[in-house]
Design brief:
The structure is a single chain. The protein has 191 residues and is of the alpha+beta class. Strand 2 and strand 3 form a beta hairpin. Helix 2 packs across helix 5 and helix 3 runs antiparallel to helix 4. The N and C termini lie far apart (42 Å).
């Protein structure tokens, strides 16, 4: 960062640390012990699809790579905001396999020059009463935050989100700016 940027109050965004995704495995133990949240075995990488053959090839290669591992097929879904989610599924007790798949998707897109298109990765958890909670990794910030939608409404369970933040604050780098905790309505990771 140069002097001119400093004078204008500009800062460089944090570089994504994709290896931080592996911290979700440890955070899962903490979440289960502290508040009873268990992994669902579903996760998703959300990105803005690019036009062109290079991106189509990278996306097809990813789909083929992940489907070739013998696990459940990877699904693609599209939302009304123009984002695509690549949904990975593993048995609920195979969280490390799920996180490895999500890491591979992020890394492959980044290595092929599509890092700026990545929005976030979400890993689904479920509470004993059936409420869904997502642990979200913001690619451009290199931070995590919880997303807990209220079932049947476009509202968030703020108390649950703050409880999750408090539980995993030592396991994951939590996004300190609450206004950056995006609402991911309809994310397939929590379906």
């Amino acid at each position: 960062m140069g002097l001119f940027d400093s004078l204008l109050g500009r800062s460089r965004p944090a570089k994504a640390d994709l290896d931080a995704l592996f911290g979700i495995t440890q955070a899962a133990f903490t979440l289960e012990a502290a508040i009873g949240l268990r992994p669902t075995g579903v996760g998703a990488v959300c990105y803005r699809a690019n036009e062109g053959a290079a991106f189509a090839t990278a996306e097809a290669d990813l789909q083929q790579l992940l489907d070739a591992d013998g696990g459940p097929a990877v699904e693609t879904s599209h939302d009304s905001y123009g984002f695509t989610s690549l949904v990975c599924r593993q048995p609920a007790d195979a969280l490390s396999d799920l996180v490895t798949e999500l890491h591979a998707v992020n890394q492959t897109l980044e290595n092929n020059g599509f890092g700026p298109s990545l929005l976030c990765s979400v890993v689904g958890f479920v509470a004993p009463d059936g409420r869904q909670v997502g642990v979200v990794y913001l690619y451009k910030r290199g931070t995590f935050y919880p997303f807990a939608p209220v079932p049947g409404a476009e509202r968030r369970d703020n108390a649950m989100e703050l409880q999750v933040r408090g539980a995993v604050g030592t396991d994951l780098r939590i996004e300190p700016e609450l206004h950056r905790w995006l609402a991911l309505w309809g994310t397939p990771a929590l379906a």
